[in-house]
Amino acid sequence: NEIKIFSPATVANVSCGFDVLGFCLDTIGDEIVVRKSKEKGFRITRIEGFELPLNPLENVAGVAALALLNDINLDFGFEMEIYKKIKPGSGIGSSSASASGSVFAINELLGRPYTRHQLTHFAMKGEALASGIEHADNIAPALFGGFTLVKSNAPIQVLELPSPKALYATLIHPEIEIKTSDSRAVLPKQIPLQLAITQWANVGSLVHALHTNDYQLLSSALQDVVIEPYRKGLIPHFDSIKKQSVLAGALGCGISGSGPSIFALSEGLATAKSVEKSMRDVYSKSGIPFNTYVSKINSKGIKIL
Ligand code: HSE
């Protein structure tokens, strides 16, 4: 009647795949406890870590849970405790960790009536509260694990992509907040055909590289000619971080989701750690507080604790 889960942070976009690609991290995530209650309906009884609303209608985990519960007829309800470890607005899928963890946990307690695709649909309702639009590029990797590609939103279709074994992510999270809605507002409504051609060649190449364990191809595909030029100005020292990461051996480096976190991918843990050091060196001089993380690609997604 009670379940505790770990709901992981995720990196959306992965440079070239704006709004479609994402991958799941291992070392950072929220913990959520859900229990059945005799009282019908849904309540959030406790949130630790960050100040967020307990009212389910104002909380991404609550909106996602209610989307699921409105779909099913039950004569009991649920209570939730959220232990937030991922800072909201950090660019590593804080809202989607809450939204996907919420519906995953309820589904487990109900005996899994819903598929992961259906859970993605419910979780997107919560995500929309945070970012203003329904998108699944953070939710899909949290629920499915590994790398994912959101083929379509309506109907929701998620493709699970393989992760090369030696691939590690390094992240730096500068302690400034960028709202997804603000970093979407700086984007152009239209893009030149030539840039679109480069971008979709890179998306296709990245998917191929994941399937064939081709680190060199992966490296050349980890580029974003469409979104990054508009967003990088919102993130202090982005160009230096990128340059130093690649010098330290990273396959590529880009904005994590809508920022301000920056991610790099590397072949092997030792390189990922050198990349972390190079990122810390850049930010240490800046006076801006920051955190860094090194993580394996989490192939399982949400875990039951
Ligand atoms: N794909 C989204 C964006 C992810 O880049 O705006 C942020 O939630």
UniProtKB/TrEMBL annotation:
Domain GHMP kinase C-terminal intervals: 207-284
UniProt domain GHMP kinase N-terminal: residue ranges: 63-146
Keywords tagged on the record: Amino-acid biosynthesis, ATP-binding, Cytoplasm, Kinase, Nucleotide-binding, Threonine biosynthesis, Transferase
Top class in the EC scheme: transferase
Keyword Cytoplasm assigned: yes
The protein's role, per its UniProt record: Catalyzes the ATP-dependent phosphorylation of L-homoserine to L-homoserine phosphate.
Pfam families according to UniProt: GHMP_kinases_C (PF08544), GHMP_kinases_N (PF00288)
GO CC terms: cytoplasm
Lineage: Bacteria, Pseudomonadati, Bacteroidota, Flavobacteriia, Flavobacteriales
Pathway participation: Amino-acid biosynthesis; L-threonine biosynthesis; L-threonine from L-aspartate: step 4/5
Enzyme Commission (EC) number: 2.7.1.39
GO biological process: threonine biosynthetic process
Organism per entry: Bizionia paragorgiae
Recorded family membership: Belongs to the GHMP kinase family. Homoserine kinase subfamily.
Catalysed transformations (reactions): L-homoserine + ATP = O-phospho-L-homoserine + ADP + H(+)
Subcellular compartments: Cytoplasm
InterPro entries: GHMP_kinase_C_dom (IPR013750), GHMP_kinase_C_sf (IPR036554), GHMP_kinase_N_dom (IPR006204), Homoserine_kinase (IPR000870), Ribosomal_Su5_D2-typ_SF (IPR020568), Ribsml_uS5_D2-typ_fold_subgr (IPR014721)
SUPFAM superfamilies referenced in this protein's UniProt entry, alphabetically: GHMP Kinase, C-terminal domain, Ribosomal protein S5 domain 2-like
Name of protein: Homoserine kinase
Keyword Amino-acid biosynthesis attached: yes
One GO molecular-function entry: ATP binding
